[in-house]
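Researcher: Let's do a round of design. I'm pasting the structure tokens now; please hold your answer until I've finished.
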């Protein structure tokens, strides 16, 4: 068991209902903020921003200063793992990530077998700085991508509709797929352990492409690798808390919950918390799940969306968040209105 924490997010992750709900939002440091765009211009490339601790610290703090979120998520990206393993990774303006595709066991052999963790030392330095610069009530979060989501970028070399190249690879070359997933489980677990040691109090695992997998592949490529990561992390660092976000994980949510994979399950915006939460085992925390586009739209859809979540989760351990990342066109006013509504919802 953990020492009882006075940080709202950690209390929820330990299974305690907290009201008003604590709140942070996925991708809270990003292009909807003018102060982010300013630093982004100064940094040069996106990866330079990720690997310059002073700047990564600054953009992590920006949404905390502006909105006072209950958690700060360290500024980085899920693709720093393939980069550290030796794959060529670039971020092209207005196009997104571009990688040199890895499509066979021979390609995989050219990457590091063990995670060269020191290549990610700027990330750990960012965490170390944040540990002292954050307000004392703010929880510091680390993160990484889930193996399937990261593998889908490594195989296709870019974002792809329904992750078709990676899915096809899973059928045609299962030995390669499994070797890649296993490599990512080991690398990601080592990375999360170091994040905890550097000051992260909880970590979130992003399975952003959970919806693409058919049932025959889901267990092997998503559920089981994430289970192994959580188990490995908790065996090494029992005090680490884990949030698991499986976008499109709806049909499999109960299996994550009953296998106790993580302290909290983050719901995407397609799920109705009023229906889902009462069916989950006691004690498991949840997070989510406002539609990011309701936050763009504002007005009644925003307020109704917030109020429905608040009414559905009352009395349960829940962290308010979006059902996926905030999008760049989101008006800043709407974020302020969201926080005021959640925090002003009484005691
Ligand atoms: O504030 C935070 O949440 C922390 C930072 C964070 C980023 N990426 C910064 C970023 C986090 C947690 C991520 C995770 C991430 N990265 C995911 C999983 C979460 C999700 O949204 O599903 C994925 C799939 C990626 C891969 C990735 N990185 C893509 C597809 C892109 C390009 C698309 C886009 O939004 O532009 C990125 C780039 C990226 N990562 C940006 C930011 C702020 C924008 C790039 C820029 O500023 O130039």
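Researcher: That's everything. Go ahead.
Model: Designed sequence:
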């Amino acid at each position: 068991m953990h020492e009882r924490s006075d940080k709202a997010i950690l209390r929820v992750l330990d299974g305690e209902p907290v009201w008003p709900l604590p709140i942070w939002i996925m991708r809270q440091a990003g292009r909807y903020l003018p102060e982010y765009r300013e630093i982004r211009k100064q940094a040069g490339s996106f990866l330079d921003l990720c690997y310059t601790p002073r700047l990564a610290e600054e953009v992590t703090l920006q949404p905390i200063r502006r909105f006072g979120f209950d958690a700060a998520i360290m500024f980085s990206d899920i693709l720093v793992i393939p980069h550290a393993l030796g794959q060529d990774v670039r971020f092209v303006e207005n196009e997104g990530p571009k990688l040199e595709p890895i499509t066979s066991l021979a390609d995989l052999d050219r990457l590091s077998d063990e995670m060269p963790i020191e290549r990610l030392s700027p990330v750990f330095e960012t965490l170390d700085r944040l540990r002292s610069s954050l307000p004392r009530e703010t929880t510091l979060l680390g993160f990484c991508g889930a193996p399937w989501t990261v593998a889908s970028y490594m195989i296709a070399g870019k974002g792809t509709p329904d992750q078709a190249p990676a899915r096809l690879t899973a059928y045609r070359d299962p030995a390669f797929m499994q070797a890649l997933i296993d490599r990512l489980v080991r690398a990601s677990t080592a990375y999360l352990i170091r994040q905890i040691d550097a000051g992260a109090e909880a970590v979130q695992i992003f399975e952003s492409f959970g919806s693409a997998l058919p049932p025959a592949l889901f267990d092997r490529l998503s559920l089981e690798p994430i289970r192994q990561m959580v188990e490995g992390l908790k065996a090494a660092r029992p005090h680490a808390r884990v949030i698991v976000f499986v976008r499109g994980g709806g049909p499999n949510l109960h299996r994550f919950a009953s296998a106790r994979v993580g302290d909290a399950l983050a719901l995407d915006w397609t799920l109705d918390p009023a229906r889902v939460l009462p069916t989950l085992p006691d004690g498991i925390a949840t997070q989510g799940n406002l539609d990011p586009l309701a936050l763009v739209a504002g007005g009644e859809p925003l307020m109704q969306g917030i109020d429905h979540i608040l009414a559905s989760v009352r009395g349960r351990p829940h962290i308010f968040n979006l059902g996926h990342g905030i999008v760049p066109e989101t008006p800043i006013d709407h974020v302020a209105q969201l926080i005021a509504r959640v925090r002003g919802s009484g005691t």
